[in-house]
């Protein structure tokens, strides 16, 4: 009888230890992710202020979506001069949009390319400085959903999307984007991505909604390899 009690106590002890280890690991991981979320939220808001806090960003997103090939081409010195001279600085939001719409096609292309390459440069700089796995902007509106505007990666193991290409997974199924696609945009959203987008790797994504006229039109996203966070 005593040996049976001993076995029961041993089994109970092992179960207790297993549960305790699980609880401790969960607590540590949860605390770590909370801190990581705070950092990601701070960083994604900073990048937004640095690169996308423009009254006319929705106009640029629309232009990039409709002219992906032309926008992604290297900007020329002539286009830089055209963008610099375009009469759009210092105007209020509605006036900026009106001014952009009134520009000739070649000047519209110049300012759109100038804005696109400036944002790409900022994302690449932040990617390298903060050591993210990736930084990208995705279309969220019904017309642009899943469109990749910009994607900068630090790992060659991640699909290198070009402007206008589509996200591999359905954003309605992605934890970090689901609220945006349903029209909610109270805060930065977080979630583990589908494996298919990152070549069978899981990435932890923090996404900031980019809102125009009350609608989430795009999301600015930071990604870390999930395994590196655990």
What would your notes on this structure say?
This protein has 230 residues and is of the alpha+beta class. It has one domain: Beta-Lactamase. Helix content is 52%, strand content 16%. It is built from eight helices and five strands. A five-stranded antiparallel β-sheet has the order 2-1-5-4-3. A hairpin with an 8-residue loop joins strand 1 and strand 2. Helix 1 runs antiparallel to helix 6 and helix 4 packs across helix 6. The longest helix has 51 residues. It is elongated, with a radius of gyration of 23 Å. About 4% of the residues have low confidence.
Largest sheet: 5 strands, antiparallel
The unreliable regions are 19-28
Question: Which series of helices and strands comes N to C?
Answer: HHHHHHEEHEEEH
The CATH topology annotation reads as: Beta-Lactamase
> What do the pLDDT scores average to?
82
Separation of the first and last Cα atoms: 44 Å
Q: How much of the sequence is in beta strands? A: 15-25%
> What order do the strands of the largest sheet run in, or round the barrel if closed?
2-1-5-4-3
Which SSEs are present, and which pair or pack?
Layout: H1 2-52, H2 57-66, H3 68-72, H4 77-85, H5 93-102, H6 105-130, E1 134-139, E2 148-153, H7 178-181, E3 189-192, E4 203-212, E5 215-225, H8 226-229
Antiparallel strand pairs: 1-2, 1-5, 3-4, 4-5
Helix pairs in contact: 1-6, 4-6
Characteristic key phrases:
single chain, 230 residues, alpha+beta, Beta-Lactamase, five-stranded antiparallel sheet, 8 helices, 5 strands
